[in-house]
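agent: user wants the full assembly modeled, not chains individually. Plan: 1) parse entity lines 2) check alphabet per entity 3) run joint structure prediction 4) return tokens. Steps 1-2 passed, two entities, 531 residues total. Proceeding.
--- entities ---
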Amino acid sequence: MSVQEAPAPAREEQAVRPSRLRRWRGPIGASLIFVVIIAFWHLAVASGLVHEVILPPPAEVGLALVSTFSEGFFYEHLWVTVQEILIGFVIGVIIGFAVGAILGTSALMREISLPYVVAFQGLPKIVLAPIFITAFGFGMTSKVVMAIVISFFPLLVNTMSGLMTVDAEAVRLMRSLTASRRDIFFKLSVMHAMPSIFAGIKTSLTLALVGAIVGEFVGARNGLGFLLASYSYQLQVDRVWAITLILAIIGIILYVTIEYIERKVVFWGTLQTGEAGM
Amino acid sequence: MNTAVIETTDVAKRFGTGDEQVRALDGVTLEIRQGEIVSLLGSSGCGKSTFLSILAGLLEPSSGKASIEGEPPRPRREVGLMFQRSLLFPWRNALDNVMLPAEVMDLPRDESRERARELLAMVGLAGWEDRLPSELSGGMQQRVALARVLLPDPDILLLDEPFGALDEMTRESLDLELARVAAITNKTVVLVTHSVYEAVMVSDRVFVFTARPGRLAGTVEVPFGRPRDLASSGTAEFAQCVASVRALMETSL
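--- prediction returned ---
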């Protein structure tokens, strides 16, 4: 070659190290907002703006949180709900991906199933909860089914659209290399769809949690949704809020885990365009 | 040297039906010999890329016959196709992009990896093997694509404006490099281009296409041997050759 590129620069040189302030401004700002919210919450209750029966002061909710964590039965309920979410989520993801992959690669299947997809998309899935309780009982199964039904759809849509936007010329390249349909699917289309698939997975995860809790609201003997509903009937509002916070924390932990996996899998960046052209 | 590896007889391609039918290509008959470098030259929309797709076995001709090494065209290891865009996969580093044909064609892994490294070094990218496409310039990406098409060691290279998106200097140096590699390894090269200069610079023969429908307007033999260098383009013979190609293009409009 007449032109020899200079040796590749070391990666470390490329990354400009952010200053300490830049690095911490996000967490510091977020913490400040947290403090402000707690302060407003406290003042709103103390001044009588919000009645204590609706929203107890933060200190009371904090105490309820501590006592909730110290009770053994809480962990049984927690475990039930976590299982429902995870099993529902995993099965929902498998179904969503599989159906999305079929619809994303076959125009015929897409045309045949489009009316049903649209109808299902329009249906508020939580209305199915009472039917699932009747069909699958008060145990975990009905909540898992609810979580599956509500969570598989966003991944289905994202997998399908991700696969459909694959570069036609890249497919031509693969074909010229004698690639089979299988090679084109796994080496090109799925990888191309990965950023979109992960966006779908994150939505599915949040919805799996919603599905499990709604199922528990409608009819259950255990689980955090059941616990929350019971506390609500007993007017233990501080505990209702404590459980609510715990559900938020579960949601955050699951979401952060998926984001971590996403960064490992979709390492090339979610919005890559330009010369690489994919 | 004189055996024809690519032969087409009356190849035509029509898209669509009825009133909306577009004749992209009509009655193209030509012969390309083993080891030759030829250019398909024409304005955009003259069907030259369509013709290349037919040779690559990605499109069926509507009528007429095409054959590669005596067989109907189909995607295979002996024929390599390169595009104007690098089409590198952004999730693969340079080396793994070059390795893609080896994976798809089930070539021996270790041997191919060794060859991929050599090819990257040959195109001037030694030391860049583990870089992602997003870390490479446009010219570097296209050189990775060149290494990729060369990996399975095809006998025939079908190049669809492979350096068309690059700046002129990079394009010239890559053109000359390509001609050199083709000569050393005795490859047959079909280069689609809309640059008269590029066509004359690298080819033994230039096929000039007319537009809509794409027809063969004529052929110009380039009267000097290879290897060439940038100095070749300064000669009177070169200028004359460019002029006769241009004349052919103008009469065909």
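agent: reporting back. Strands of chain B lie at 4-15, 22-33, 37-41, 63-68, 79-82, 156-160, 188-193, 205-210, 215-221. Residues 169 and 175 of chain B are 10 Å apart (CA to CA).
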